[in-house]
Amino acid sequence: MEYNNEYNMDLYPKKLHWKEGDFTATRTTMWSGPGCHEGCQVIFYTDDDGKLVKVEGDPNSPFNQGRLCMRCLELPELVNHEERLRYPLKRAGERGEDKWKRVSWDEAYDLIEQKVREFQEKDGPESIISMIGTGRNVSQVIAHNQYANFGGPDLTLCFLSGDSCMLPRTALCYVVMGNQWVADMSQFRPDRYENDPEWQIPECIVIWGTNPVVCNSDAFLGHWIVEAMKRGSELVTIDPQLTWIASKSKYWLRLRPGTDAALALGMMNVIIGEDLVDHDFIDKWTYGYEALAERVKDYPVEKVAEICWVEPELIVEAARFYAKAHPSTIQWGLAVDMSKIGTPTAHAIACLAGITGNIDNPGGNILIDQACGLEFGYNSGIEYLKEGMVEKRLGNSKYNLKKYGFTASSQSDCILVACETGLDEKGDPRPVNMLWIQSANPITNMGQDAPRIYRAMKNVPFICVVDLFKTPFAVACADLLLPCAMSNERDCIRVWFDPVRSLTKCSSFYEAKEDEQIMIDLGHRLNPDAWPEWVKEPRDYMNWRLQVGNCDFTMEELENEHAGMIYNDFRYYKYEKGLLRPDGQPGFMTPTGRYEFYISLFDSWGVDALPYYEEPPTSPVATPELAEEYPLVLTTGKRSFEFFHSEWRQANTTSRELHPVPYFDIHPDTAAKYGLHEGEWAWIENQMGKCRQVVRLNATLDPRVVSTEHGWWFPEQEAAEPSLFGVFDCNPNNLIPMCENGDSGYGAPIKCGMAKVYPCTPENSAPEDQPTYQVTATNGYTHGPSHKSDTPSFYDQNK
Amino acid sequence: MANIGEYGLLIDYQYCSGCHACEVACKKEHDLPKGDFGIKILTDGPRQCSDGVWEYDYLPVPTHLCDLCAARVEAGKLPTCVHHCQAGVMVYGPLEELAAKAKAAAKDKMAIFAK
To answer: What is the pLDDT of residues A258-303, one digit of tens each?
Structure first.
């Protein structure tokens, strides 16, 4: 069980290719599709025809030491799946009829070129919008394509309300510290754990709103924490339910969903009140501590305990443990973003780490950029946008964080409204003529109020989808559907944190193209001035971007001379060494040069410069009358090992063998109260809509909370409407609003809604009772008209 | 191929996260049909004990279809479950060595499976 990276170098050599029996082995990095946030190093085994037949983890990789999750191990099932898209398809019937005509890539490109030029001329390039999923390794491609080829300024996560995935945390971190932090598990150096002379074992790891061993989010392998646990780290887990890792924690704080900010403020009340702070760090490197100390007085532990449904003693003990341990670190997750106060919540947690001085210290929360400082993210190619175009981004005039450049994306909810009304957030005309959706399936999981998104798409004249499979969104909305390559079919570079890694193509699949290839081909057609003539293939593109980024290596050198990965020189305490600011001065890249508890930019914008808590828009406290009808707090998006969002749902995969149906978790007492039984289907419903999932009893939940899975569709069901793969039937996004965002434009009440539950019976579960049928065929749910853009929503009525 | 009862797996199930990597690696290595497993994860809990402690453990159990990846081992590789275990909680070896390792670890929740 030792952690070393020297296992049988004859069988697993640090080479790019070798033969093993009848197979060719390729040593490379796995990074999507299918989606994933990691970049584990793997050996792909291909046969004489170049078909992927087997995957092994590379035991000599410091990143994952040969270990792999089940989805990589079953990867050949998806790569070679009979339902995978093989050719470009053009819609032949009406949208939703699932009638397609196979076309050549040239015909597809001709159509895109014709539409793009038509829309550019008619309403300007800003009438073309690109939207992305998550974890599908297209961040740089979709941005570069949008900015350089289409010329429009709008790019964001695909109808994810409030862009509530990492972006609220990231934007907040950039105003507080001019950088972003992650928990230090020695991941940025090749000698891991005790082999790194500087790294320290975190005495305390706080796991905040994530189930890290399952979700592996944000380039962080959750099992790194297990390695730290083996070395003595103790945990504080903040989660509404007892995850496996919570059960191994010293403290488990079972908070009410959506109250994370109150908890962080209450913990700071304890830590500041008992003077457990790091005065040295605060005095030398931070700004606004006194104001923060005043603010946390509003959050005494008793009050916070009542808000959060956590015992006050536990809050006190956990706060003391976190503050007294050295070093302490926080691994935070999606739940931080997924409330309306996502930004203030992230702010509160960032303050918690700051007052204890656990910033950029070994075993603490360390500051990190993309590898080699390369821009492979949402700003790729932005230099090609015409002057004045960035300012036109949807949401920019309304939200300061966007206006002043603390984010590289537009606001999803504003894009939805523009699709619906043809107006921007100022009420000025802003037609949306074309959506370019690359690796996103928004009516299945990413978009809230999924039926509303479905309807809004009917207003968009041309929608092009690039994906691996024929998804529900593609069937319902796409006019052109393009097949893209999977990880083993791509030449690519990954810079999502250190180390920089290469992906080496070792197979191909019919006419599926690499996302990069599509971008390059469109570029030479649409805007040849922006594309060097020699950049013809993805490998050329990578070498071009390495040149532009002033890197002193080529893709080929990375693959052949560096075994596919280069660790940069990661250093601790960068703020002491003048490594965070372009002027080379010590300090942080903020207006005060300090870690800002009191955010000076927010102050200048006239918004609250300190963290605060506010109730979710619907909750037993905020809307007690609503709670009479919908008494349970609904949290959504519980992850499982088998899936990545809406992927891996194909019926014959090992994932579906292990996890055949959607489950929602409910306390046994609550289930009994509402007549629900383990393994039986139940309806989950609120004022927005309903969905159904299978009851799974979970005694670790608060009896007032239920927890659903997300991303379910059923590829084994008919594609054409009104079936549409049953996409709305089990979708908790039917119950969650769009356009209910925080003042920053970030955050949405995705994990903290309300619902009631009742058994599915033959009387209430006829075909016409199914949400998919109701949405696609009758335009509404049986219990009332669902939300439409021309009528005020429940949330608007209650403002 | 070693004789029955000579080799086995040592599993530190305090840290098994139940991630299914061993199950799926095994199914792929041995090309097992749906429903068949060479190793299967059993679950205890989550279950609150009378002292307030939540017991929540996973334990991977080799089945009769497990051959300790004889072909892989012969080729110089580790059994695929051991190789891919995300929590790094599995050790393959002669039973005496496994017993010695279990003792040296001086901790609870260690299991040895003989094959």
So the answer is: 999 999 999 999 999 999 999 999 999 999 999 999 999 999 999 9
Which residue from B20, B34, B46 is facing A699, i.e. has the nearest CB? Answer: B46
Q: Domain coordinates of chain B in residue numbers? A: 7-114
Nearest-Cα distance to chain A for B64, in Å, is 20
- Band (pLDDT 50/70/90 cuts) for residue A135 is confident
Identify which has the larger pLDDT, A374 or B101.
B101
Residue B53, C-beta contacts closer than 8 angstroms, at least 6 positions apart:
none
Separation CA A197–CA A195 (nearest Å)? 6
Give A590→chain B minimum CA distance, Å.
39
Q: Provide, rounded to the nearest whole percent, the portion of chain A with pLDDT above 90.
A: 92
pLDDT digit string, tens, across residues A761-791? 999 999 989 999 999 988 665 443 344 444 4
If you count residue pairs, one on A and one on B, with CB atoms under 8 Å apart, how many are there?
Answer: 103
List strand residue ranges (DSSP E) for A504-589, in order: 565-566
The Cα–Cα gap between A462 and A484 comes to 19
Say whether residue A230 is in contact with chain B using an 8 A CB cutoff. Answer: yes
- For residue B15, list chain A residues with Cβ-Cβ distance below 8 A: 226, 229-230, 248
Q: Tell me the domains of chain A and their CATH numbers.
A: 17-79 (2.20.25.90), 181-367 (3.40.228.10), 624-797 (2.40.40.20)
Q: Is the pTM of this model over 0.95?
A: yes
- pLDDT above 70 covers what percent of chain A? 97
What is the tally of helices (H) and strands (E) in chain A? 28, 28
Cα-based angle A402, A407, A413 (whole degrees, multiple of 5): 60
Contact between B88 and A226 using a beta-carbon 8 Å cutoff = yes
Residues of chain B positioned with their CB less than 8 A from the CB of A43: none
CB contact under 8 A, A244 and B84: no
Q: B11 to each of A69, A712, B14, B41, how far by Cα in Å?
A: 18, 34, 9, 12
- Give yes or no for A70 touching B (CB within 8 A): yes
Q: Collect all residues of chain B within an 8 Å Cβ-Cβ radius of residue A76.
A: 28
CB-based burial of residue A722 (10 Å sphere; 0-12 exposed, 13-18 middle, 19+ buried)?
Answer: middle
Tell me which of A5-9, A325-329, A476-480, B18-22 is least confident. Answer: A5-9
Question: Does the distance separating the beta carbons of A69 and B19 come in below 8 Å?
Answer: yes
Answer whether A244 sits within 8 Å of B15, measured CB to CB: no
Q: Which CATH architecture has domain B7-114?
A: 2-Layer Sandwich (3.30)
**CA-based nearest residue in chain A for residue B105:** A1
Name the average pLDDT for chain B.
96
Chain B residue with Cα closest to A223: B87
> What pLDDT score does A472 carry?
98
Both tokens of residue A777?
């065929």
pLDDT at residue number A575: 98
Q: Do B58 and A244 touch (CB under 8 A)?
A: yes
Nearest alpha-carbon partner for A124 in A450, A410, A436, A388: A388
Taking an 8 Å cut-off on Cβ atoms, the answer to whether A74 and B48 are in contact is no
pLDDT value at position A5? 64
Set of chain B residues whose Cβ sits within 8 Å of the Cβ of A70: 19-21, 23-25
Cβ A553 vs Cβ A544: under 8 Å? no
Exposure class string for A522-541: b at 16+ Cβ within 10 A, else e: bbbbbbeebbeeebebbbbb
